[in-house]
């Protein structure tokens, strides 16, 4: 009997419930963009730099005056902070993923942090009761802190409960939930839905809604068997969790795999973030994990989202916001394609295919932008390149790095590795968000040449350094990395690691 191919209702419920945290993350990422001008006007009014007369003029739909509030330096500063504080919160909390995950377990860890999302939703939803700029910035900071934790806990939990045969597909659901969340926020952000002067606080406040549903469902979800067996040393509870997740089957093989992983973990000191960075044993895995997260963010995908509306406007699209929503739909569809392909084609193959496609699209997009004022049809080359760029991103480089980290590391270093990868992702996201407007101003239509060069570097790295993990156990994946080491390094591996870990005061 194959113990790796059970899909049950309980497993589906557990994955769906965990992915609600990712949905909330995606919604929070996208929700702030659509109502920007409306929020800036309220900021200006609250700060006293936008007069009642101007507000009335705006309400009466004088389009020429609409952007004026957003041009005031104080409004610009507070608006920028509203956007950036989300990433700062995520950067800070990503270091706590391992601590929260091990403190009470994966399920209770997700349950504990949901109060942050509810608090953040209330702060933003009730922002008109006090100073909107202070309330929104506070809410975004708390929500960013929550999302930094959930973006680590969700892939960790799903990776630990997923049967080996479906680990890739189920792991990809984290990214799918993120892009669905972004799409929902784009649709709800339309001015005739919630992105208007009266309803925008509700639009922001709904960021916390998935946490309420997740709080109701989490008590029905089994704890991670790996956490129960390897961390808590409760074999029978781990067996019971496996039976709940996979149904009636012979759990001997799964228990044996966890037993070997536990024995290996027991030989070594507790692996913290600092000791993981210092240990040479995991250096190759850690390099691969961090580079894939850097590739995800420095691929230019966020630049596409920042730049897409202006490209669509130049192409003569009457309502660029609908074209941007079209990008969100493409985002979702091709993440579904990745879910279907990842356990067939393999992780490495999809990452390489995605990065190569994105690199080609970055070049064609540059050509389209350069000549669209000369040849009208070139604007459609730019538009097509945007859609294809997003498609290739979601096939591999978007979803795979999130769950691949959990596959590359055993139970001991896994929480620390996920924390480091998450921090790397949030930090690079923040850097791109803050620097892209300046890079765009400097390079103009050649901005995507820079991303094409970076993508080429990531393709070379992936080809030579990233192994295929499809269908492999944690032990087999570790063995792949050890093959690259010479015999002199392999022989004293355990002793070397223990020495390194003992040298770290944080171990």
Description:
Its main location: membrane. GO terms for molecular function: D-glucose transmembrane transporter activity. It is found in: Membrane. The protein has 507 residues and is an all-alpha fold. The chain folds into two domains: 8-51 and 68-221, Up-down Bundle (Growth Hormone, Chain: A), CATH 1.20.1250; 271-482, MFS general substrate transporter like domains (Growth Hormone, Chain: A, Up-down Bundle), CATH 1.20.1250. Helix content is 76%, strand content 0%. It has helices spanning 9-31, 36-47, 52-59, 68-71, 73-93, 97-103, 106-125, 132-161, 167-188, 200-205, 209-217, 225-231, 235-246, 252-266, 273-278, 283-297, 301-314, 320-345, 347-371, 378-395, 400-408, 414-443, 447-465, 474-483, 487-490, 493-503. Helix 1 (9-31) packs across helix 9 (167-188), helix 12 runs antiparallel to helix 13 and helix 19 (347-371) packs antiparallel against helix 23 (447-465). The chain starts with 8 loop residues before the first helix and ends with a helix.
Features:
single chain, 507 residues, mainly alpha, Growth Hormone, Chain: A, 2 domains, disordered C terminus
- Order of helical and strand elements: HHHHHHHHHHHHHHHHHHHHHHHHHH
Distance between the termini: 41 Å
Tell me the fraction of residues in β-strands, as a range: under 5%
Class of the largest domain in CATH?
A: Mainly Alpha
Mean of pLDDT = 84
Silhouette? globular
In the predicted model, the low-confidence regions spanning at least 5 consecutive residues are 62-67, 486-507
Q: Count up the helices.
A: 26
CATH superfamily of the largest domain: MFS general substrate transporter like domains
What is CATH's topology name of the largest domain?
Growth Hormone, Chain: A
Taking all Cα atoms into account, the compactness measure Rg is 24 Å
What is the correct CATH architecture of the largest domain?
Answer: Up-down Bundle
Major sheet description? none
Helix-strand makeup class? mainly alpha
Give the total of domains: 2
